[in-house]
Design brief:
The complex is a heterodimer of chains A (479) and B (96).
Chain A (H helix, E strand, L loop, with lengths): L8 E6 L4 H5 L1 H8 L5 E5 L12 E2 L4 H5 L4 E2 L1 E6 L2 E7 L1 E2 H8 L11 E2 L2 E2 L8 H9 L7 E3 L6 H7 L13 H8 L9 E5 L4 E4 H11 L6 H11 L6 H6 L5 E7 L1 H5 L14 H16 L22 E3 L10 H4 L8 E7 L2 E5 L6 H13 L10 E7 L1 H10 L3 H10 L2 E3 H4 L18 E3 L6 E5 L7 E9 L8 E4 L3
Parallel strand pairs in A: 1-2, 2-3, 13-14, 17-20
Antiparallel strand pairs in A: 1-5, 4-9, 5-6, 7-8, 11-12, 13-15, 15-22, 16-21, 17-21, 18-19
Helix pairs in contact in A: 5-7, 7-8, 8-12, 9-12, 14-16
Chain B lengths: L7 E3 L23 E6 L5 H14 L3 E6 L9 H10 L2 E5 L3
The chains are: A alpha+beta (479), B alpha/beta (96).
């Protein structure tokens, strides 16, 4: 709908429910007796103000299109253009805007206004659709009156197996308030079908996942991070291995949107953690066309393929953060995506010195995917606070921790060759005389997260690494 | 038929497929199945459908009759939904 025009002169927007609006009626009468034409719009009661000619802004079109947030609002319009505005009752301000003096002399000099009906939380979503829906390009799908809307989402194949929030226009328009980007902006080309996805389609799937608008920039950043040759979400999706995109979030925004980096960090209960990751996976399904049993050929998969997203505990970490280690400022919001399986627990409740604890990490990491597998897979070590404290007390920084783990994972080829230790799996026998590292340089990522009690950490194993598979990718989150 | 904005959702897919759902497979026999006969409301379509009902009933099918409000528009979504939950087979009669 086009923005309606306002008449030249003074425009006053009021509502009966607002005591300040009732109070200023004498001042409005003085304006009407002044030199400028005055138009009064009332939002709620079409009879108010009884003593003045007025127009009922019944559909709140004037209020919406002129960004009326407070009533009363006074606008001065000159040649169709707003040249001055004041809200509430501040006599000096009214006199400035209206270019009249001695207004409302019987009134106190100042009284704050009330919220405009057009920003009433119960109405604003409907108004956004009524006046802004033409911005949306997605096909409308009608749901029959007798059809359960949640079942309808399942019936159309749009869900990941759990119910989704039906993406109505109102909800999608509200979601789009979470970003400054235009609905038509292309965010990424989504495998496996290699389809361009717009901000609007991201928002639709974010609604379905249960996101709040403030999560939308994180979903967009995660999507940008996975949809490229470096991360290779096509391969991560198609592989028979049990991996999916693991999203590690950094920056002050993780606290602002209420992400969990502490107790039960990988578990249930936190809306931001669960829905951001879920939105990404719904997009791979609905836009990319990546569905289990089709392009997704996982032998077992893992529950994290519904959503595996968490924040680093930046306030508690003794180290630089993951995103800092990857070149992003600590004050910048960022996501790092990793092709990961489900987390496994590392238990060491006795170690009080860093050497002993590092031996535990090395022994546990040695078994990743197969004790005889080397170099092919990366991993994230998610260090629990009680383990990290052992290192902090000893003065080990991030690089020291990782280099000490690497040093303990230099493995004689004779232990790794095919047939060694009675295990057929292994490296070719000609490597018997070499020493091979379990992990490639940079193949271990370190994140600080988890609850404050428990001498535990976690390992998240990866998928085929490097150019033949997938590289972790870090992207800034932009509003 | 009444509709409200809440009864529409925005398509979350890449829109490369039709939004309508796929048909189920053709049955080998109609015996015991519920067959919906959808009259599109064109003149004399009922003559054809009456005869179909006779023949289908003889074959052991349970027949239900439906009618579009007008042949000029697609069947309303509620009517389509009602047929989909009540019938295993539907025959839409065209006439002219």
């Amino acid at each position: 709908m086009n923005r309606p025009t306002l008449p030249d002169g003074l425009v006053v927007v009021v509502k009966r429910e607002c005591a300040t609006c009732v109070m200023v009626v004498p001042a409005i009468e003085e304006l009407i007796n002044g030199p400028l034409p005055v138009t009064v719009y009332v939002q709620d009661d079409p009879t108010f103000p009884e003593s003045l000619a007025h127009i009922h802004d019944a559909d709140l079109s004037i209020s919406w299109h002129y960004d009326i947030e407070t009533v009363p609002t006074v606008l001065r319009i000159d040649n169709g253009v707003e040249v001055a505005r004041t809200v509430g009752w501040v006599r000096d301000e009214w006199e400035r805007v209206t270019e009249q003096s001695d207004l409302g002399s019987s009134l106190s000099a100042f009284r704050p206004g009330c919220g405009s009906l057009s920003v009433d939380p119960d109405l604003v979503d409907e108004l956004r659709v009524r006046f802004g829906v033409s911005a949306l390009a997605a096909r409308r799908v009608e749901v029959a009156d007798a059809e359960d809307e949640f079942e309808a989402m399942f019936d159309r194949g749009w869900t990941d197996g759990l119910p989704v929030v039906p993406p109505t226009e109102q909800r999608v328009m509200r979601m789009l308030t979470g970003t400054t980007r235009q609905p038509t902006d292309v965010v990424a080309i989504v495998p496996p079908d290699l389809v361009e996805i717009t901000v609007e389609k991201v928002a639709i799937n974010a609604v379905m996942a249960g996101c709040k608008p403030e999560y939308l920039p994180w979903v967009i950043a995660a999507l940008e991070a996975v949809c490229n040759d470096t991360f290779n979400i096509h391969g991560v999706l198609a592989t028979t291995m049990p991996v999916g995109p693991v999203i590690v979030c950094n920056g002050p925004g993780t606290r602002a949107i209420g992400m969990n980096s502490g107790m039960n960090v990988f578990g249930q209960g936190n809306r931001a953690n669960l829905t951001i990751g879920r939105a990404v996976q719904l997009i791979i399904r609905n836009i990319g066309g990546g569905r289990p049993g089709e392009v997704d050929r996982a032998t077992h998969g893992n529950p994290g393929k519904l959503s595996f997203c968490f924040a680093e505990d930046e306030l508690g970490t003794p180290w630089t953060t993951l995103s800092e280690s990857r070149g992003i400022s600590r004050t910048t919001d960022a996501v790092t995506v990793f092709p990961g399986e489900g987390p496994r627990c590392v238990v060491d409740q006795l170690a009080r010195d860093p050497e002993s604890l590092t031996n535990t990490f090395a022994a546990c990491l040695r078994t990743l995917h197969n004790p005889k597998s080397v170099l092919a897979f990366d991993a994230i070590v998610v260090m629990g606070p009680e383990h990290a404290r052992v290192y902090a007390d000893a003065g080990w920084d991030r690089d020291r921790v990782l280099s000490e783990i690497h040093a303990r994972l230099q493995i004689p080829g004779s232990e790794l060759i095919r047939g060694a230790n009675g295990i057929a799996e292994g490296v070719p026998t000609h490597l018997s005389g070499m020493t091979l590292p379990k992990f490639r340089p940079g193949g271990l990522l370190l994140v600080h997260a988890g609850g404050g009690a428990g001498l535990f950490s976690a390992i998240i194993g990866g998928w085929a690494n490097g150019d033949i598979g997938s590289q972790p990718v870090t992207r800034e989150v932009r509003a | 038929m009444t509709t409200s904005a809440n009864r529409f959702v925005l398509d979350p897919t890449n829109e490369r497929r039709a939004s309508t759902m796929e048909r189920v497979g053709r049955p080998t026999s109609l015996k015991g199945l519920t067959v919906g006969l959808l009259d599109i409301s064109k003149a004399r379509g009922d003559v054809f459908i009456d005869r179909l009902e006779e023949r289908l009933s003889e074959m052991g099918a349970d027949v239900k009759r439906y009618k579009k409000p007008t042949f000029t528009k697609p069947a309303p979504v509620d009517l389509r939904h009602e047929i989909s939950i009540n019938c295993q087979v539907v025959i839409e009669a065209l006439a002219d």
